[in-house]
Specification:
Length: 311
């Protein structure tokens, strides 16, 4: 009885201040959770990546938080740019895709790729069978990225790790690869990123479900990434056939606001100059200009300014 008596005056006081606020013109606004807006700069480990231009553009654009995606090993092994982010207190998210499964599907993997010489079916079967040679190779390959994170990852950065970019694997095989991820990267969230047209493109319990493109079919916990769908700005034509108008990007953010992250992508983030001419990833030079960085980061800055509280 005594506690109820004490609550009554407090309730009256709260109502009084609410009425006073309404009379003064204040309108309460419902603040909703939203996905963290970032960029899938997959080619960042290329020795030709324009890191200085990217960092300068981030300052010009007024980005308050930095959320990045990179592809390990494919474009190169130059980690200097990524290291510069790791020490930045505004660097809040790093996602690493460990293996390039896109080249395996297209049968154009360079000799340096983890999957060089392995077909989609062979890789799948060997994972399911836990082939000793493949397991040893995976452990050695994953340990390189794990060692890098152990040395440079700071408490202010949350990490996500995917065993394969746009994976061709069956669910059964993917679970084996994800077990390896969880073993080598216990401090990070494991991500399952199947290729969109796969019959295995469904969530796996205990992982973040990531899909790419203009209309990925995902539900939380999830990541939506434009990778493969270029952004068409009035001041910049897309280099890919699949595109989304820059004016529609806010709708993309809104549609996937319940995901962990939404990542933007343009063809230059993979060093692509034309969808028709394949160039070895380590030979590519068509990386973003300062203007392209400004356009993409400007969209991210607008989203950070206009949204509610981060998830």
């Amino acid at each position: 009885m005594q506690s109820k008596f004490r609550l009554a005056p407090l309730s009256i006081i709260m109502l009084f201040f609410l009425q006073l606020a309404l009379l003064s013109g204040f309108t309460p606004r419902l603040v909703l959770a939203q996905a963290k807006a970032g960029s899938a700069e997959l080619a960042m480990l290329s020795e030709r990546w324009p890191c200085r231009e990217a960092r300068a553009s981030e300052l010009r654009s007024g980005l308050k938080e930095l959320h990045k995606v990179v592809l390990w090993h494919t474009f190169g092994n130059s980690t200097e740019c990524l290291q510069s982010y790791m020490s930045d207190p505004n660097f809040k998210t790093l996602e690493i895709h460990l293996i390039n499964e896109v080249c395996q599907r297209h049968q154009n993997c360079g000799e340096y790729e983890f999957l060089a010489g392995l077909s989609v079916d062979e890789y799948d079967r060997k994972l399911i069978a836990r082939d000793a040679e493949l397991m040893k190779k995976l452990d050695g390959y994953f340990s390189g990225a794990a060692t890098f994170l152990a040395q440079y990852l700071k408490p202010h950065t949350q990490c996500f790790v995917s065993p394969g970019l746009e994976s061709n694997l069956s669910i059964e095989a993917a679970k084996v690869a994800l077990e390896k991820v969880k073993t080598h990267f216990p401090q990070c969230k494991a991500v399952w990123n199947p290729v969109g047209n796969s019959r295995h493109a469904s969530p796996i319990q205990g992982t973040i479900f990531e899909m790419h493109g203009k209309n990925p079919d995902v539900k939380p916990p999830c990541i939506a990434d434009l990778d493969g769908t270029d952004i068409h700005f009035p001041a910049r034509k897309p280099v890919m056939r699949r595109k989304i108008q820059s004016s529609k990007v806010p709708e993309y953010f809104e549609r996937y606001r319940q995901c962990e992250h939404v990542f933007l992508w343009v063809g230059e983030f993979n060093g692509i100059s034309s969808p028709d001419n394949f160039i070895d990833p380590r030979e590519r030079t068509n990386f973003p200009s300062p203007q392209t960085f400004d356009l993409v980061y400007g969209l991210l800055a607008e989203q950070q300014e206009g949204g509610g509280t981060a998830r």
